[in-house]
């Protein structure tokens, strides 16, 4: 694989997407939001009224559905059967159901292949998810793992949803985040965990720009030697 890859992994609400998007822009790389691939399959299966816990039923949906993931500026555009679903995949009902897809090894294998195929089309990619540095791109040039306090992550999600006109109770969000962490960390395939060679960044008290600056400086220093900016 000749693509130059930086991976950013970490739990929900840690600021991965924003940081990955900004870092990609700064490095003139393509941004791959792998959560969007899990969300797209979830939404397609929900729309086709498939039983999400039935892996075979979801595989059938995947075979019968045309998914297109397009790099458009700093957004990964998601088209399902010709329809733009970039916004729809963010619906809280999709967020609640995505664990069924994420926990199924057979579905993960398919999505991992899809993510690798997407990246191979470009020279430079910044990818973001849970298993990017460990499973999907173990040979990535740079790997980061972001963490943050669950209450702070819930607060960020709350602000995001509010800005999108969706009212959700803060307490419910904290509960969902803790639940999603547990299911992300405990699954047998592609669990949420840092790659041994990943750089850990705690984002609780740093904003997205600060996080991007840390990552950019790290990459720059490794590539050009310390002291050069
Ligand atoms: O980052 P996000 O909230 O859009 O991700 C949606 C879900 O997809 C999340 O609950 C975990 C799962 N996911 C995953 O299992 N592996 C990835 N590489 C990305 C996301």
CATH topology name: Rossmann fold
- Characterize the biggest β-sheet: 5 strands, parallel
Please state how the strands of the largest beta sheet are arranged side by side: 2-6-1-7-8
Number of helices: 9
In total, the number of domains comes to: 1
Low-confidence stretches: none
CATH architecture title: 3-Layer(aba) Sandwich
CATH superfamily caption: P-loop containing nucleotide triphosphate hydrolases
Report the sheet-strand fraction: 15-25%
The amount of helix comes to: 40-55%
Task: Specify the overall morphology.
Answer: globular
SS-based class: alpha/beta
Q: What is the average of the pLDDT values?
A: 93
User: Cofactors and ligands present?
Assistant: 2'-deoxycytidine-5'-monophosphate
Instruction: Say how many strands there are.
Output: 8
> What is the distance, rounded to the nearest whole angstrom, between the alpha carbons of the first and last residues?
29 Å
């Amino acid at each position: 694989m000749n693509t130059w890859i930086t991976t950013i992994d970490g739990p929900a609400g840690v600021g991965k997407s924003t940081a990955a998007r900004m870092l990609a822009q700064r490095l003139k790389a393509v941004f791959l939001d792998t959560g969007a691939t899990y969300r797209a399959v979830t939404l397609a299966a929900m729309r086709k009224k498939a039983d999400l816990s039935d892996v075979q039923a979801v595989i059938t949906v995947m075979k019968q559905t045309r998914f297109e993931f397009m790099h458009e500026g700093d957004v990964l555009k998601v088209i399902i059967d010709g329809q733009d679903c970039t916004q729809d995949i963010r619906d809280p009902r999709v967020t609640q159901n995505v664990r069924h897809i994420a926990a199924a090894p057979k579905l993960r294998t398919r999505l991992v292949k899809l993510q690798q195929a997407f990246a191979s089309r470009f020279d430079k990619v910044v990818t973001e998810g849970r298993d990017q540095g460990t499973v999907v791109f173990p040979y990535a040039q740079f790997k980061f793992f972001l963490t943050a306090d669950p209450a702070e992550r819930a607060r960020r999600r709350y602000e995001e949803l509010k800005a999108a006109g969706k009212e959700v109770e803060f307490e419910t969000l904290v509960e969902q985040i803790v639940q999603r962490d547990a299911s992300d960390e405990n699954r047998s395939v592609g669990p949420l965990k840092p790659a041994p060679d990943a750089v850990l960044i705690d984002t609780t008290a740093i904003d997205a720009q600060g996080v991007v600056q840390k990552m950019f400086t790290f990459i720059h220093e490794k590539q050009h030697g310390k002291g050069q900016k």
